Every structure is written in structure tokens, then in C-alpha cells.
Amino acid sequence: MTYRSLAFFAFSFLLFSCGNEAPPASESSTEAVVEAAEEAPASSSESELENGSEQVALGDTLFVEIEANDQMKYSTERIDAYIGQVVALTLKNVGEMPKEAMGHNWTLLRKGADFQNYATKAMLAKEDDFLPADLMGEVVAHTALLGPGESETIFFDVPEEAGPYKFLCSFPGHFGTMQGLFFVRQ
Ligand SMILES: [Cu+2]
């Protein structure tokens, strides 16, 4: 067990020890704070994240592995990439619930896209697997909608404008807990 997961375990224990005093929302926000505090500065070589998620750069390729589960969570909520890299991103649905009830995708929106608008309209786009056809201009890259046990690897160039980009699972109701930051650096 790494120091990082040990620290997180200790923190979780502390949280659970608080019992009913802590509302459910505080757990995830505390987790985010802990993550932010512990997050090492972005490394171009390798950074290992909790829950086995990894991002490893080999040559010009950035390999990223993300798990999505039945608790509507991604195993990582932060990806750091450099302009000039090609991203090989693998999404694995490690859940067991049927795709119709708990499908997952990984959708990266262009910088400055209206996240809320996209997520809201995506809910209605069932026939397009929740990737609205008229908003494809807002999407940099995406996986297919994956059912339990499925995985997919997609390849795409890192966008050539530095800054923060957001990603989400566009399955209805998931974007609240399944979203994260894709940070592009020069
Ligand atoms: Cu999802």
C-alpha cells in the first residue's frame, strides 16, 4: 500500500467515524480536496493514480486507463497531456449492471464548450447513444457506450490549445459524478 492510498484510507476512516454528521456530499468534496492536496505536479513521464488508473507517456503516446463502475465513478478525474502527444485512452466498464441501466462512455469536450448544455442535451439523445449528433462539434474525442465488462481504446491527438478541457460520461444522470479535467500543457 502506497503512502498515498494509506493516507486516503486513513482519511476515509476518519470520515466514516464521523457517522451521520457528515452528509453524503461532503465525502466526495473532501476526497477532491485530499486528491488536490496530494496530487503531485504533472509529470511528462509517469503518474500513477488511485484505483489502479494510470497515465504513462511512451515516446509521443500518452497511455491512459480509466475504469468506470456501477457507483457512477471514473477511477480518475484528472488527465495531464502535452500538445504533440497522441492519447491512447482505454475505458473499461468494470461494473455488472446492464448497459441500459448503467452504460458508460468517456467524452472529451472542446475547450470552452458549454458543459451543462452538452450534458443536458445528451440525456435526450438515446438513439445516438447519448452523443447528440448536432453537438458533435463540441466533442474532441469519445468512446462508445460500454456495457458491463466491455472496454474500448481510442486514439486522438492532444488538442493544440493549452488549458483545461472537461470530460464526462454522457449517459443520463452520470455527469454529476462522472466528470473530470483533461489538462493540456505546452
Ligand atoms: Cu456513466
Which terms would index this structure?
disordered N terminus; alpha+beta; 2 domains; 5-stranded mixed β-sheet; 186 residues; single chain; binds copper (II) ion; Immunoglobulin-like
Write the layout of secondary structure elements.
Layout: H1 3-17, H2 24-38, E1 46-48, E2 54-58, E3 61-68, E4 78-82, E5 86-93, H3 99-102, E6 107-109, H4 115-122, E7 139-142, E8 151-157, E9 163-168, E10 179-185
Parallel strand pairs: 3-5, 4-10
Antiparallel strand pairs: 1-2, 2-3, 5-8, 6-7, 6-9, 9-10
Helix pairs in contact: 1-2
Bound molecules: copper (II) ion (CU).
Describe the structure concisely for a colleague.
This protein has 186 residues and is an alpha+beta fold. It is built from four helices and ten strands.
Structural write-up:
With 186 residues, this protein is an alpha+beta fold. It folds into two domains: 1-38; 45-185, Cupredoxins -  blue copper proteins (Immunoglobulin-like, Sandwich). Helices cover 23% and strands 30% of the residues. It has four helices and ten strands. Strands 1-2-3-5-8 form a five-stranded mixed sheet, with no helix packed on it. The chain has a five-stranded mixed sheet with strand order 4-10-9-6-7, with no helix packed on it. β1 (46-48) and β2 (54-58) form a beta hairpin. α1 (3-17) runs antiparallel to α2. The longest helix is centred in the N-terminal third of the chain and has 15 residues, at 3-17. The protein is globular. The N and C termini lie far apart (34 Å). The model is unreliable at 1-52 (pLDDT under 50).
Distance between the termini: 34 Å
Q: Please outline the major beta sheet.
A: 5 strands, mixed
Q: Could you tell me the number of beta strands?
A: 10
Kindly report the average pLDDT value: 81
Which ligands appear in the coordinates?
copper (II) ion
CATH hierarchy: architecture of the largest domain: Sandwich
